[in-house]
Design goal:
Distance between the termini: 79 Å
Strand content: under 5%
Radius of gyration: 22 Å
Number of domains: 1
CATH class: Mainly Alpha
Number of helices: 19
CATH topology: Sodium/glucose cotransporter
CATH architecture: Up-down Bundle
Shape: globular
Helix content: over 70%
Number of strands: 0
Structural class: mainly alpha
């Protein structure tokens, strides 16, 4: 049986398992169950689901490509991720307490109750947050499906256009499954199934990659293809801004609030930190190892693929192939959940605690539309690194305003609104207008976002003191 046949079997197996797990006590029958699974998830499920938000196909291929291009410089990303999770660890109990006090199911709900109802700028900030949050997870979702296209093109004999068509077909199947049984509870249960396969695949890769012969090859690698791609501005910006942004990720809040108690979430985050570190480092090393292969393609997109093909025998190769397939899909469910909820919030203005069956139907229809749109986006933007950088830049730019709204005393929507709008506008201008700044535009934009937030806060304080 050839690899293409195995992939078809894996696709069918994934869809069937997804459907079965969804129907097995996990079907979302209310809007609240679609967006929340409050205080119900045990330790193992929180650990696996939390890791699934980080360890996806986009991370595999994007970090491998970055390692291929820039050597070990991308190690700053797992360091920032570990530090960001450490911040979540330290504040998770407070987040759960604050949400209990305000009866908030999600990050959206908490922002709602933190801002005064009569604040005239509140609707504008909430709408801007929903729009940018939707863009963030929409690009991440497109990145997962773009990786699937690369994955099929590299691991099979399918030409690029056929691989893209097959990826769109998988998108369609995933959307149908999600429309029937979608919801956060289903995400958490399928995350557990998918992460088991991913851990198996990473173990196989790690054993082969860290053999004595391959470690020797790592000692004498050719130079990186683009060593300046991630320079000091990228490193400093990541450490200063990317690290605290984990505190305001909607998907992390979902899992923190899903844990059955404070002790569970503390243990889950603590266990996840070394797992995420190892995962990022493994695929950065895979990208670097690809440069040692004499027949390697100059296209960094295939760095991880080339490494896996060179290292593994046929049986191990099939195991890792299925594991990578699971990785591609493991994050897609969560991204689809958040994107559809964000778009629903933007269109209807309905908060997450005010659910109904009508809202559930609306968000399912939006989920289908978003999946189709993400399939079209991968035709327009075929670089997974650009999609990932653009997505996480959106998160980083929102972080100062969100931290202010969540933790400041008596926050106002106006400073937060202008911080987000100006910061995001500057980012888009630089990202699309100056190609040399695509990977560092977030540093400049987030710095401006912080400055604008401070200026508007000081103006408000001065006005208050004068009155």
């Amino acid at each position: 049986m050839n690899l293409t046949s195995w992939l078809l079997i894996a696709t069918l197996f994934y869809a069937v398992m997804n459907l079965l797990i969804g129907f097995w006590k996990t079907r979302a029958d209310t809007f609240e169950s679609f967006v929340s699974y409050r205080d119900k998830a045990g330790l193992i499920f929180v650990v696996l689901s939390l890791n699934a938000t980080f360890i996806g196909g986009g991370m595999f291929f994007a970090t491998g490509e970055m390692g291929y291009e820039a050597g070990l410089t991308p190690i700053v990303l797992p360091i920032c991720t570990a530090l960001g999770l450490l911040i979540v660890y330290l504040l998770s109990s407070r987040i759960r307490r604050l949400c209990r006090e305000k009866n908030a199911l999600t990050l959206y709900d908490y922002i709602d109750v933190r801002l005064q109802q009569d604040d005239p700028w509140k609707p504008r900030f909430v709408a801007s947050f929903a729009l940018i949050n939707m863009s963030l997870y929409f690009f991440l979702l497109a990145g997962q499906f773009l990786v699937l296209t690369t994955f099929l093109e590299a691991f099979t004999d399918l030409p690029g256009n056929v691989a893209l068509t097959a990826s769109v077909a998988v998108v369609f199947v995933n959307t149908l499954v999600y429309g029937v049984v979608g919801g956060l509870k289903k995400d958490i249960w399928t995350d557990a199934f998918q992460m088991a396969m991913i851990f198996l695949g990473m173990t196989v890769i790690g054993i082969h990659l860290l053999s004595a012969q391959n470690l020797k090859a790592l000692e004498s690698l050719p130079p990186p293809t683009d060593p300046g791609a991630y320079g000091p501005l990228f490193i400093i910006g990541s450490l200063l801004f990317f690290t605290p942004a984990f505190l305001v990720r909607y998907d992390i809040w979902q899992r923190v609030l899903a844990a059955k108690d404070d002790r569970t979430v503390l243990r889950a985050v603590g266990i996840s930190i070394p797992i995420v570190l190892f995962s990022y480092l493994l695929f950065i090393v895979c990208g670097n190892f690809a440069r040692s292969l004499s027949a390697v393609s100059d296209d960094g997109r295939f760095a991880v693929v080339n490494t896996i093909e060179a290292l593994l025998g046929s049986r191990s190769f099939i195991i890792v192939t299925i594991a990578l397939f699971a990785a591609v899909m493991s994050s897609a469910d969560t991204f689809l959940n958040i994107t559809s909820v964000s778009l629903h919030r933007l269109v209807t203005g309905v908060s997450d605690e005010k659910g109904s069956r009508r809202n559930l139907l609306q968000v399912r229809v939006l989920a289908f539309a978003i999946c189709v749109a993400s399939a079209l986006l991968i035709v327009l933007s075929p670089d997974v690194v650009d999609l990932m950088v653009g997505a996480f830049s959106s998160l980083v730019i929102m972080a100062p305003a969100l931290v202010y709204v969540i933790f400041a005393n008596a926050p106002k929507a106006r400073p937060a609104f202008f911080s987000v709008i100006f910061g995001f506008g500057i980012f888009l201008t630089l990202f699309f207008g100056v190609s040399a700044l695509q990977k560092t535009a977030f540093t400049i934009a987030t710095t401006c976002s912080v400055i604008i937030l401070l200026i508007f806060r000081s103006v408000r304080k001065s006005a208050g003191a004068a009155s």
